[in-house]
Amino acid sequence: MSIHSCILPDEKVFADFRQQCLSSDNWVNKYDNSGMQVWVEVPAKKGKQGPKVHKIKCTMPITDVSAATMYDVLHDSKYRKEWDPAMLESFDIARLSANADVGYYSWQCPKPMTSRDVVSLRSWQVKDEEYVIVNFSVKHPKYPPGKKLVRAVSILTGYLIQATGPNSCKFTYLSQADPKGSLPKVVVNAATKMLAPKVMRSVHKAGQNYPAWKAQNVPNHKPWLHPEQNTLPMMDPAELAIQRADSLENVDVTSKEEDAQESEDST
């Protein structure tokens, strides 16, 4: 097996991700309102303390936006600045293949938590009215963890969008991530019950507004559908390594907050 096939997702990764999105085994429903549902995975085996990984799944029926439009929204990095209130910075770094790239994203966390960032490899696939995007954390030689943000780790995160009609779809978001740092359980629970539905509603609204926005912003430029339009530099996937959660130090978030406060006080 080559290095390329090791790091770039293969057919099995997409199939496994899809299966997780559709499965209800070992998932507990934590929120159900107007068709939107939030699920949290309960590990099949109890006992030995595993890594602190939070696995969450959100599903939402969308009756007024096509699957193709929702797919475009998730890909369009320029549009993300218009609708993602938590985003601090986001940019694409390089392309790895016709359906894979590597990028950087940082986001604001509710106080007193330190904000997070992630460098991730993203890959996508379209088949029979189904759209899949998956991403996971990678180590990039030019983008190591910094001092001001906590580097989170995406083990496998992504979206499954299934067309249910010409202008409707079922939208699923699944995240398996280690946020790193010392997150109180109350914060994780709040994220599950309040933050996740809020983000889903933001994405839905972004889908409603996208066609009008895109009509004014290079309407034919969609490199995720037309690889020949992609102007990102090519990068050899062998230069990347999968970022394992246990290879990042568990940063004490509170000390980072105190450091940030001290620097603010001294200015």
UniProtKB/TrEMBL annotation:
Region: Disordered, residue numbers: 246-267
Q: Where in the cell is it found?
A: Cell projection, Cilium, Flagellum; Cytoplasm; Membrane
Coiled-coil region list: none
Molecular function (Gene Ontology), one example = lipid binding
Family annotation (InterPro entries): STARD10_START, START-like_dom_sf, START_lipid-bd_dom, START_lipid_transfer
The terms describing its cellular component in GO are: cytosol; membrane; motile cilium
Q: Does the keyword Acetylation apply?
A: yes
Q: Which CDD domains does the record associate with it?
A: START_STARD10-like
Cited Pfam families: START
Q: Name one GO biological process term.
A: lipid transport
Limits of the START domain = 23-212
- Check the record and name the Gene3D superfamilies matching this protein: 3.30.530.20
**Which keywords belong to this entry?**
Acetylation, Cell projection, Cilium, Cytoplasm, Flagellum, Lipid transport, Lipid-binding, Membrane, Phosphoprotein, Transport
Query: What PANTHER family does the annotation carry?
Result: PHOSPHATIDYLCHOLINE TRANSFER PROTEIN, START DOMAIN CONTAINING 10
This protein is called START domain-containing protein 10
- Species per Swiss-Prot/TrEMBL record: Sparus aurata (Gilthead sea bream)
